[in-house]
Amino acid sequence: MVHNYNTENLVIIEHPLCEHNMSLLRNKDINSDMFKNTVHRLTTMLIYEVAKSLPLESCSVETPLAVCEAKKLKEKTQVIFVPILRAGLVLSDTASEIIPNASILHVGMYRDEETCKPVWYYDKTPAEFENPDDVRIFILDPMLATGNTAKEAIALFVKKGINIVNITFISILSAPEGLAALTKEFPGLQIITCKVDEKLNSRGYILPGLGDVGDRFFNTFG
């Protein structure tokens, strides 16, 4: 397959359970509980994959029998999950369960259906970070379609002094067009996804896709 995007910093989770759960998630007939549970399983795989990049430090631990040397997440590293409202919330609960000491910052955008451009309506992020080199930003959005919303969120943190190599974009499903947009704009960006689909349709929706994740997760059809 010929890609029109840079794959250097792209991780696509290749695992039988990922393939199986993607098949469940795509099915238009699964009920809400199964959809939510499937999102949870896929998010767990994504967060464990992204956590491989977190730095460790040595520590001493006293077990019931002896003292041993161990490793733990580096204390001065600030892990921040950033769900893009509303759909990003389907990933953030699971992410915070896996890394409970992480902070969660919310940003909100909706897509203008005529232009496919993002419109900001919420930004709950600090004006600046005290030690930006120690910050790891993980932006959460289940679908990477055009990439316009993702670019806005990433640029927000770059402007606040976060090095692009310390920012990771996490999605369940991606389109080639979105990957091309992100890798062109931010060459050092880390991207982790479960699957790359064929293309976008004329309205900017991923094909074959899996529908609107937010609507299916929160039962807000119609």
Q: Can you tell me about this structure?
A:
By secondary structure, the protein is of the alpha/beta class. It has a single domain (11-54, 75-218), classed as 3-Layer(aba) Sandwich (Rossmann fold), CATH 3.40.50.2020. It has six helices and 13 strands. Strands 1, 4, 5, 6, 7, 8, 9, 10 and 11 form a nine-stranded mixed sheet that branches. Strands 2-3 form a two-stranded antiparallel sheet. Helix 1 (16-26) packs antiparallel against helix 2 (32-50). The longest helix is centred in the N-terminal third of the chain and has 19 residues, at 32-50.
CATH fold-level label: Rossmann fold
Q: What's the count of strands? A: 13
Give the number of domains. 1
Order of helices and strands: EHHEEEHEEEEEHEHEEEH
Please give the alpha-carbon distance between the first and last residues: 37 Å
How many helices?
6
**Low-confidence parts:** none
SS class:
alpha/beta
- Helix coverage percent of residues? 25-40%
CATH class equals: Alpha Beta
Strand percent estimate: 25-35%
Question: What is the CATH architecture term?
Answer: 3-Layer(aba) Sandwich
The global form is globular
Report mean pLDDT, rounded to a whole number. 93
Over all CA atoms, what is the radius of gyration?
A: 18 Å
Labels describing this entry:
222 residues; alpha/beta; Rossmann fold; nine-stranded mixed sheet; two-stranded antiparallel ribbon; globular
Topology:
Elements: E1 10-12, H1 16-26, H2 32-50, E2 56-62, E3 67-73, E4 78-85, H3 89-98, E5 103-104, E6 106-111, E7 118-124, E8 135-140, E9 143-144, H4 148-159, E10 167-174, H5 176-185, E11 190-196, E12 199-200, E13 206-207, H6 213-218
Parallel strand pairs: 1-11, 4-5, 4-6, 4-8, 8-10, 9-10, 10-11
Antiparallel strand pairs: 2-3, 6-7, 12-13
Helix pairs in contact: 1-2, 2-3
